[in-house]
Amino acid sequence: MKVLGINGSHRKGSTLILLEEAFKELEGFDTEIISLCDYTLEYCKVCNACKRNGGVCIVKDGYQEIEEKMKEADAIIVGSPVYFGSITGMLKTLFDRSRTLRVNWELKDKVCAAIAVGATKHGGQEHTLQAIHAWALIHGMILVADSDPTAHFGGAATAKQVEDSFEIDEWGLKTARSVGKRVREVLTMLRK
Ligand SMILES: Cc1cc2nc3c(=O)[nH]c(=O)nc-3n(C[C@H](O)[C@H](O)[C@H](O)COP(=O)(O)O)c2cc1C
């Protein structure tokens, strides 16, 4: 079974570290983490072509590669930094473009979990997680959170950048790890 991690940050920083923490629990699965900053993503043009032609986006850019990876995945863990209390612009752009996959419900029944990181405590992590949850639910995905032992809404962390490295709070790292564990548990149940 394949698990895809999507780093919604505009760079490879603390969100990527938290995704890597979650993926430590996914040994034995076919895993890949992609960073949106490695792709060019245009906005959805609302041309509605995808709705008429069976889900094909006529804008050709980095989206097609990501779309293929999302189709192949059994589970997707989406990570985002908090930008003004919510997800990043790049991640929202990916979500909007993913309308192509809703035409034939291609993300339905895939497992989804979310991780959010901000610079401050109470900086909007929960709202950011909920923005990712909305995307997953609208696609009919099986939404999971961090479950035990941390058990709230997914990975939620604070990160402080010190030169080129990041100090991430211990509890936040634990919640990310719990997300990986929960995805593993649910995928294992579904495999039975
Ligand atoms: C445009 C912008 C807006 C931000 N808004 C918030 C915010 O509302 N709350 C918060 O806690 N941190 C905010 N931050 C800080 C980032 O969420 C934080 O530095 C995060 O660790 C960055 O993730 P990254 O290292 O994966 O890029 C913002 C950063 C940027 C660049």
TrEMBL record:
Record-annotated NADPH-dependent FMN reductase-like domain positions: 1-147
Signal peptide: none
Positions of transmembrane segments: none
Pfam families the record matches: FMN_red
Stated name of the protein: Multimeric flavodoxin WrbA
Keywords: Flavoprotein, FMN
GO MF annotation terms: oxidoreductase activity
Top-level lineage group: Bacteria
SUPFAM superfamilies attached to this UniProt entry: Flavoproteins (SSF52218)
